[in-house]
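dumping this here so i dont lose it
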């Protein structure tokens, strides 16, 4: 008897500590896998297990009673299985499959208890026994595909309507809880108000459990398949090596008006090469893809960029025309050639010529 009194005395304090941890995890702005969050999760799970053990020792709830028969101060302890399932789902340290399966058990226990106490009309289906499938050896025969019929469409419509209804119900419950919380936190609270507050929390957690159980049912098959693959030593498919490119892509660069602009753009784009117009022009002349007389011709640099072969073709035509005139001993062409030779002799370029001058 003394042990029961001690448990009853510690149960409200333990539950308050659990509720405080729930508020912290709902508001904390840190990754779930962080050491700080996982510390809260571990402590909350241990406290929930301790509180559930206290409730079982005190025999506070029975399957043969109605919710009206439960004392107002004890209604909140019905939340413990759902809260333990919530804390378990946040655990990232243990093996995920075991965590999800254990969380499913506590969510299911909570839903079954709420249904027995007529808190909700939702009933969790009992797990069905697996029937031996019609197999040929170890390979199961897949069911033939079929188009959804009117019955399937009605089921899908009912599921959607149920989700919409639960969503609206959850919004109303949250609004109701916000209104009641202000009253409950006062020093003197009427018993009916406090009871309504706890019952509203029970209904809110019913919707939470339904959503969580749906997610768990989708997650468990995937985790089981991964566990089987891992047990058989089947690794994930290796990534294909990247295909080699036959041609190197053109490296972009910036053409600036002068050296000052080159310095400015170079600072803004350290990974992008820059060159002035003069540098670009000299580079193309050295490569032989641009004539030195391109500026004096009838097309611009932009036109050359659009048609790089145009300058080469024009130069070839010009050279061919000169050779033809030279063969025909054209006096004008001969005079131009002599003048050009005399000009080159008088104005030789190169460092050697400059050294001789000095």
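and the seq i came up w/
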């Amino acid at each position: 008897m003394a042990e029961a009194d001690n448990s009853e005395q510690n149960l409200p304090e333990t539950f308050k500590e659990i509720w405080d941890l729930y508020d912290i995890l709902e508001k904390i702005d840190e990754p779930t896998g962080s050491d700080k969050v996982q510390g809260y999760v571990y402590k909350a799970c241990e406290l929930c297990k301790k509180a559930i053990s206290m409730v079982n020792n005190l025999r506070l709830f029975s399957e043969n009673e109605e919710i009206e028969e439960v004392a107002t101060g004890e209604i909140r302890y019905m939340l413990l299985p759902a809260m333990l399932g919530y804390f378990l789902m946040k655990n990232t340290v243990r093996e995920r499959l075991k965590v999800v399966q254990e969380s499913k058990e506590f969510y299911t226990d909570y839903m079954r208890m709420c249904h027995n106490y007529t808190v909700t009309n939702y009933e969790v289906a009992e797990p069905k026994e697996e029937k031996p499938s019609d197999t040929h050896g170890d390979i199961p025969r897949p069911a033939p595909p079929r188009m959804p019929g009117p019955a399937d469409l009605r089921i899908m419509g009912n599921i959607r309507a149920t989700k919409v209804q639960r969503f609206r119900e959850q919004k109303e419950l949250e609004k109701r809880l916000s209104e009641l919380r202000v009253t409950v936190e006062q020093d003197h609270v009427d018993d009916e108000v406090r009871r309504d507050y706890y019952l509203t929390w029970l209904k809110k957690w019913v919707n939470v459990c339904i959503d969580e159980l749906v997610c768990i049912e989708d997650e468990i098959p995937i985790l089981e398949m991964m566990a089987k693959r891992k047990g058989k030593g089947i690794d994930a498919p290796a990534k294909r090596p990247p295909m080699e490119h036959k041609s190197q892509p053109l490296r972009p660069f910036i053409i600036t008006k002068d050296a000052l602009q080159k310095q400015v753009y170079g600072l803004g784009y350290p990974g992008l090469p820059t060159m002035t117009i003069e540098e670009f022009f000299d580079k193309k002349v050295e490569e032989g893809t641009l004539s030195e007389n391109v500026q004096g011709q009838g097309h611009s640099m932009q036109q050359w960029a659009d048609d790089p072969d145009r300058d080469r073709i024009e130069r070839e035509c010009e050279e061919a025309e000169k050779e033809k005139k030279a063969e025909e001993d054209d006096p004008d062409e001969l005079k131009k050639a002599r003048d050009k030779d005399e000009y080159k002799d008088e104005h030789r370029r190169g460092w050697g010529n400059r050294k001789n001058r000095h």
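DSSP finds 13 helices and four strands in the chain.
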